[in-house]
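Write out the 3D structure for:
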Amino acid sequence: MSASHLNEAIDFELAQPTTTKDEKMPKLEEAGTSTVMNPAPAYATGEIAFEAEAESSLKPSSSINNHHSKFRRLGWVRLTICLIVEAIALGSLSIPAAFATLGMAPGIILSVSIGLIAIYTSYVVGQVKLKYPHIEHYADAVKLIWGRFGYELAGCMFVCQLVLLVGSHTLTGTIAFVRIVEREGVCALVWGVVSAVVLFLLAIPPTFTEFAVLGYIDFASIICAIGITIIATGIEAGKQVGGLSAVDWSVWPADDISFSSAFLAVTNIIFAYSFAVCQFSFMSELHTPKDYVKSIWALGVVEIVIYTVTGALVYAFVGSEVASPALLSAGSTVSRIAFGIALPVIFISGSINATVAGRYIISRAFPNSTIRYISTPRGWIVWILLLLAQIIVAFIIAEAIPFFSDLLGIMSSLFISGFTFYFPALFWFMLIKEGKWYKGWRNLVLSVVNGVCFLIGVACVGCGTYASVKDIVEQYNSGAVRDPFTCDSKSYSQ
């Protein structure tokens, strides 16, 4: 055979559709849903062209497969570290204030129970990824149950959630620098700009395997900062007249607690367990996907222990006046030290959210181009500009919404409620469940569990948003918050 004929034959073979994988996918869908829904969802039959285009965009063409290997180097230990970087940061700093609002007993119960629910819903998310390996981000999974509308809605929620997280970390960085330096003559906006620049620089590495190296520093940072805060507040509590018994903590919430303040405290605990939002993105780089179970159990147990111990001890040592973030409760000198040690976790945990959002946006904008793999000069230019745009928006958010707990509450209510609760519940009912919901004790129990998860998510959307907005209005009316874009450093230390 001549060289030209050989090339033609190779081209013809490459042009043929690959049937092996395509034939397997329907079997996977039927395995979980054939007895409860049609083999193909209604939206799929009406949007065949879109489905084909969308699925092809999730799979790299043969010409760029060689770029794919650098995004498949993540082991389960580093996956755990990535999840820790994303999850254990701002959440732990808001837990003691939530305990002060809810009371010690409800705080502990909610911290443990919400943590266990988050572990379960993350397990469901992982099952969806294993069953539909072409999924790269959360929006791709929602598309399977809600079609194109769900794809666009979840994509918008996904990006907004991550950009708001970056903004929240920018705000915390500003608070940290103001407290560490304690120079009233320096405009607070300067520290906001410094925080934004640090977040931008740390977000530049595009793969999570590279990012996981920073995760060890991140974890050590938050553990040391929390440990210093607990020890310092405990010593101060012991020195006061009456000792620890004089601290005004309570087992139960105050009699005059309002619904909005109570539910805002609940949303802050929910925020602390929001690790499912990036799970699909992280698992796309996992070289052994089934190992994700080890990661979510390791992270879940660590989170429950850290949040519950931190919330209970700091609240018991400080009392009802505990601040949010909790490092502000450690006294001037110790607080400065703790914030200095916490700087790595503030910026590393914030920057990974910009990386995940950037990866999602660039994969949608350039689905069949080498640009999405950030391995060429054009790819790097697009990546840098995309990160820069995110950080600028995050900085504006941080200065326009200058209050910590309410910002966390709004994010929990609008976005985390879906990613952690009602979307995983819907995934189980529509993608994972085998047979009728009432057939067998396993299906019956899991149907109840997922039904409860769905109701929790819906309640968070309505009640949590109401509580956050109401609290914002009340704070502005009472003059308890600073003006947006202010230079006054004192307003960040209150």
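DSSP finds 17 helices and no strands in the chain.
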